[in-house]
Design goal:
Elements (H helix, E strand, L loop, with lengths): L16 E3 L1 H4 L6 E6 L11 H14 L4 E7 L3 H13 L2 E7 L8 H8 L3 E5 L7 H14 L4 E4 L10 H17 L5 E6 L3 H13 L4 E6 L4 H18 L12 E3 L12 H14 L8 H13 L11 E6 L23
Parallel strand pairs: 2-10, 3-4, 3-6, 4-5, 7-8, 7-10, 8-9
Antiparallel strand pairs: 1-2
């Protein structure tokens, strides 16, 4: 039994685990399943709320009335933080990478509707965002408020618990459905979900490999980030865990032009999965990872999923991030599109 720290009941759990029948039929001897973490809620849908259950519990325990966090203009994490802060009666201050857009859409619109205060930091100055966040935290303290700074994606020692707990849930899912997955596939951006799955895999006794498709940076960066986050978690919670034994598999080659940008194959994958399975992916995270997973399965024995009979894809959410990319789906109006 894992001894979890305090958490809040913020997510709709457990989320469903379902088989993708029509896509599975495209591959000989492969079953594709989806863990629907896009169904953790509505306004707070996605993987971030699992982490925030523990992070907000810590903030309230520390007497905080404000949370500060950071991410891209269309950050799922920032949106979830803003909505949950409103529900809990806290103030959210978001530090967003880039320039203020001329119009509000997607996650950014929900940030504003939730009452979050927003500061924009240019791409050129983004490397200073954590320093700015800490200065802002100190400024709130001077004004009589107590603020908690949450790093990008909620990816820190506290946030790791979100997907450690998810692995306990997955173990029960596998027992209920009678499957023994060979691989668990996920998109990785800030590394926290990947780190939590790797630790949770060991603690929950799962046998599946954890394969993460990067949507930014490279495999070397994630190798360092995951080990650093897990080491911080181990130290903070006095957990005896062999960080060096972690098998960190970050699959490169499917990031596209860069973070928040996608190529035509990703948009077509999103459309195909929606049409065949009624499952909606996003261009920033899940669309890239799912496209990568399908591409690797099509490679057969030369792909990273060679020999995998059962694959579970962690759907980390991101639906609101589809709408700012609406112009990229013009091909749907072509009568020849299938």
């Amino acid at each position: 039994m894992i001894d979890f720290p305090p958490r809040l009941d913020l997510a709709r759990l457990p989320t469903p685990l379902t088989r993708m029948d029509r896509l599975s039929a495209e591959f000989s001897g492969v079953d594709i399943w989806v863990k629907h973490d896009e169904m953790t809620g509505v306004e707070v849908s996605g993987n971030k709320v699992r982490k925030l259950e523990f992070i907000f519990a810590e903030a309230l325990a520390q007497g905080c009335d404000t949370v500060i966090t950071c991410g891209g203009v269309q950050s799922n994490h920032c949106r979830a933080t803003a909505v949950l802060a409103a529900r809990l009666g806290l103030k959210a201050h978001l530090l967003l990478r880039g320039e203020r857009p001329s119009w509000l859409s997607g996650n950014l619109l929900l940030d504003h509707l939730s009452g979050a205060e927003i500061s924009y930091i240019s791409q050129a100055d983004w490397h200073t965002h954590e320093d700015y966040g800490r200065e802002l935290q100190a400024d709130y303290e001077r004004r009589g408020h107590r603020a908690q700074f949450i790093p990008i994606g909620g990816s820190d020692a506290i946030g790791l618990w979100g997907y450690i707990a998810a692995c306990e849930e997955l173990r029960k899912d596998f027992e209920r459905t009678g499957i023994e997955p060979d691989a668990i596939v996920v998109a990785t951006g800030s590394g926290g979900t990947q780190s939590g799955l790797l630790v949770g895999r060991e603690l929950a006794g799962l046998r599946a490999r954890i394969l993460a498709f990067n949507v930014c940076d490279d495999a070397a960066w994630f190798e360092q980030k995951v080990r650093r986050d897990v080491a911080a978690w181990s130290e903070r919670y006095d957990a005896a865990f062999d960080v060096e034994s972690l098998a960190i598999d970050t699959i490169e080659g499917y990031m596209g032009p860069g973070y928040g940008e996608a190529g035509p194959k990703v948009y077509r994958t999103i459309a195909t999965v929606a049409r065949r399975e009624g499952v909606f992916l996003d261009p920033v995270y899940t669309g890239k990872a799912f496209n990568g997973m399908l591409s690797e399965l099509r490679k057969g024995q030369s792909g990273c999923l060679a020999g995998a009979g059962t694959v579970v894809f962690i759907h980390t959410g991101g639906l609101f991030g589809v709408f700012p990319h609406h112009l990229q789906f013009d091909f749907l109006q072509d009568p020849k599109h299938e």
